[in-house]
Design goal:
single chain, alpha+beta, nine-stranded mixed beta sheet, 18% helix
């Protein structure tokens, strides 16, 4: 019982240590929220939007439905609630009682309530029948858009989207002339005039054609309007798009809207419900809109954040905020401020009978970046070559390092100062030249300070990218003298560490002036509380050179992720001049759990326990092996007739396993007894660890018998015990041949005594010689059964 209890405790301890090691290896889940509420990004600037939708007679019912869908995608995809929208339907006015343009959705601010009503007013768009004005009056549509876009107090960009399936057709419109030929010429002239008015009113025109429009005419309309854009890149300038049919109109409209609004848009995904779509939102995103065109209002939409949480648009989570629009309409959108980066999931389901309409899902977003910039040396001399380093950060001060995000960035810098004209500084993150490592989000370049430079210097980062704006913080310093009196150098390296840990910082400084100086170490371009530097001030005596060991410590409340900052050292006597500066990027990992922190100790304990367990097991197996009775050879000895010695009369070789072997003595049919196996026998023998056996008889509890020696058994008989470990094999003749097995006498059934009540169970008697006497060398197998009364009756008193 004690041994079994000890083994149980050992197994339990081993299980606990193993569990602790596994827990330590697992640790906290990476990427878990750190609980800090970052400052939410600023709301985007509002714009003026107008959508002019073709209602001419050439459209089909499906075309009109897809035009409605496209108009809704623009309205619900707009990212600012302060933007204004007008939806126009246009065809032609073929008599004085008709109007070429209908305002189906009057100009309104895109508040949450107004967005919910978009579907109702867009639903008024329809194909005009005969007698309602069936042509295509582009000049009227453009002028109506200009008028509405120029109203109100919104000063943002003015954008007109024009959706059409045809070409300019005012052949039946009397306002353009008395006959068809003059109407065509006048219509083209009025279109050019309308485009000139759009340029004057700073209205961008984005035509989208489907079916059989005139591509050249659409390109001319895009080029004829205002050419200003949200960013100076070709993809942001007004352009036309033509798709094969109206089925592709929705995706084309979303792409055009993203370009016009300077949003980043991934390709839309299409399928019939039930369907699941995966969308990526970059860490650069400050605002995103997921737009779902369901095709059928009965389709149900589930949107899951990267951590699997379902977003229903009714509540915020402390960092991100959500607004859901159009849940009961054909187009539904989720607007997210400060979205969680990662892969979002959109699940679509629908009841039977509502699964045949093609649905599409897309995401569009914009981002805002911050930058941290340094120049080395911090105060270069005129004509000296300096290195410029720029680290881009997300809106919550995380460095940019994802290759997919870095590929969209075009980064440079400008050097400005007194005594020279501004110079551009190319920057790259390609691991070449001064750039230490490619793809780490740190852009590097070199510039030679003009020899005419004097006093003030300023280097500023420049970001040019669609959908991204940057809040650049310039690096302001000054030109150094030939022999600067106060000099400083910072030494620090990027590192990986836990919250509360620190990275070493070395400051080497010298003061060759006649007055004492105080140097100030400052951490810039990082969130308050994330990082601290100690000591923050260092005093230099005149003529002194010092090496100061400092540290940058990560706040205990900082969660897993990457931090970046700029460390600068200033001379407080000249606060406008930077003595030296360095960019620093730290990778913060979750704090170690207790098992992780003591994993070496736990591993050592585990190894010790494993060794102890193995030793215990080995000891148990060895004990079992040592005490196994297999291989014992028992020989029964009787006194010689002259009483001067002993002679063997019966031998048993034990061929079974176990801690004890029991046997009995049978009175032979002649004068000699013999040994027989008996599981209930009165005699037993065990092995002893001290290379001897233990014999138990009815008279003794245990007699130690050395191998090869004898011990009294009963009634003047003695037992000799020998040991032959393992199975006794017959000798071989080589090459696997064995000696023939000796022939044994066979007994007839009459010769074999039977046990009472068990007929047919026989035990062979002792081998007899020619005279009929028992052979004293009879060897019994331990599988022999104990006989009952008979020729060789068992005598328990022997």
């Amino acid at each position: 019982m004690r041994r079994s209890t000890a083994r149980a405790r050992a197994r339990a301890a081993a299980a606990l240590i193993t569990a602790a090691l596994l827990i330590g290896a697992a640790g906290p889940a990476p990427g878990s929220a750190d609980g800090r509420r970052a400052a939410a990004p600023a709301a985007p600037d509002p714009i003026n939007l107008a959508v002019a939708v073709d209602e001419s007679n050439s459209l089909s019912a499906d075309d009109v439905e897809r035009e409605r869908d496209a108009a809704q995608r623009i309205a619900l995809g707009e990212i600012s609630t302060g933007s204004r929208l007008t939806v126009l339907g246009f065809a032609s006015a073929d008599n004085d009682a008709q109007q070429a343009v209908d305002e189906v959705c009057p100009t309104t601010a895109l508040t949450e309530v107004a967005r919910e009503k978009i579907a109702a007013c867009v639903g008024k768009l329809d194909r005009r029948g005969q007698g309602e004005g069936t042509g295509t009056d582009f000049p009227a549509a453009v002028r109506q858009g200009i008028a509405r876009l120029s109203e109100g107090s919104v000063t943002g960009p003015r954008i007109l989207f024009l959706l059409t399936d045809g070409v300019l057709d005012v052949s039946d419109s009397p306002a353009y002339g008395a006959d068809e030929e003059s109407r065509k010429a006048n219509g083209e002239r009025e279109l050019q005039q309308a485009l000139a008015e759009a340029r004057q009113a700073e209205v961008q025109i984005w035509p989208l054609g489907f079916g059989s429009p005139d591509p050249d005419a659409l390109r001319a309309m895009a080029a004829g309007g205002y050419q200003g854009a949200c960013v100076d890149l070709p993809q942001a300038k007004p352009a036309s798009r033509v798709v094969e049919d109206s089925a592709a109109l929705g995706a084309a409209v979303q792409k055009a809207f993203a370009s016009a609004r300077c949003l980043i848009s991934d390709p839309t995904h299409e399928d019939t419900p039930p369907a699941t779509f995966k969308l990526r939102i970059s860490p650069l995103a400050t605002l995103a809109t997921i737009v779902v065109s369901k095709g059928d209002p009965a389709v149900e939409v589930r949107i899951l954040a990267p951590d699997g949480e379902e977003i229903d648009g009714t509540r915020d989570d402390g960092v991100s905020s959500y607004r859901l629009t159009g849940a009961d309409q054909e187009v539904e959108s989720l607007r997210i401020v400060a979205p969680r980066p990662g892969t979002w999931t959109v699940d679509l389901s629908a009841p039977e009978g509502h699964r045949d309409q093609l649905a599409s899902v897309g995401v569009q977003w914009r981002g805002a970046l911050r930058s941290s910039i340094v120049m080395t040396p911090a105060s270069p001399r005129p004509g000296e070559r300096a290195t410029v380093g720029l680290q881009l950060q997300t809106w919550n001060d995380r460095p940019v390092s994802d290759p997919a995000d870095l590929a969209a960035l075009k980064v440079s810098a400008t050097l400005d100062g007194t005594g020279f004209t501004p110079q551009g500084v190319p920057l790259a993150d390609d691991g070449r030249g001064e750039d230490a490592r490619a793809g780490d989000g740190r852009f590097t370049g070199t510039v030679t300070v003009p020899r005419t430079a004097k006093d003030r210097l300023k280097v500023t980062g420049v970001l040019t990218a669609v959908g991204l704006t940057a809040d650049h913080r310039p690096f302001v310093t000054g030109v150094a003298g030939v022999n600067a009196q106060v000099q400083a150098h910072l030494g620090v390296s990027d590192a990986t560490l836990h919250p509360g840990d620190s990275v070493p910082l070395t400051l080497k400084a010298s003061d060759d002036s006649a007055t004492a100086r105080v140097l100030h170490l400052i951490l810039e371009d990082s969130s308050r509380g994330d990082l601290t530097v100690t000591p923050a001030r260092v005093r230099l005596e005149p003529g002194q050179t010092r090496t100061v060991r400092a540290e940058v410590r990560v706040g205990t409340g900082v969660g897993p992720g990457r931090l970046s900052a700029k460390i600068a050292v200033y001379d407080t006597g000249q606060p406008a001049r930077v003595l030296d500066a360095r960019l620093l990027t730290l990778r913060v990992t979750p704090p170690p759990s207790w098992p992780q922190e003591h994993r070496v100790l736990l591993l050592a304990l585990g190894l010790l326990l494993a060794a102890a367990t193995a030793a215990t097991g080995w000891q148990l197996l060895e004990r079992k092996r040592v005490h196994n009775v297999r291989g014992l050879v028992l020989t029964l000895l009787v006194p010689d007739e002259d009483g001067q010695g002993e002679r063997p009369v019966s031998t048993i070789q034990v061929r079974t396993d176990g801690p004890e072997y029991r046997f009995g003595v049978v009175a032979g049919s002649g004068t000699d007894p013999r040994l027989v196996p008996d599981r209930q026998g009165r005699f037993a023998v065990r092995r002893d660890a001290q290379r001897m056996a233990r014999l138990r008889t009815p008279e003794t509890a245990g007699i130690a018998v050395a191998y090869g020696r004898t011990a009294p058994l009963t009634g003047g008989l003695r037992l000799k015990v020998d040991s032959a470990r393992g199975r006794v094999r017959r000798p071989t003749l080589g090459a696997g041949l064995r000696l023939p097995r000796p022939a044994l006498p066979r007994f007839t059934r009459a010769d074999r005594p039977t046990r009472p009540g068990r007929p047919g169970r026989t035990t062979p008697g002792p081998r007899q010689d020619a005279s009929g006497q028992a052979d004293a060398r009879t060897v019994h197998d331990d599988t022999t059964r104990v006989p009952a009364a008979g020729a060789d009756a068992y005598d328990p008193d022997l």
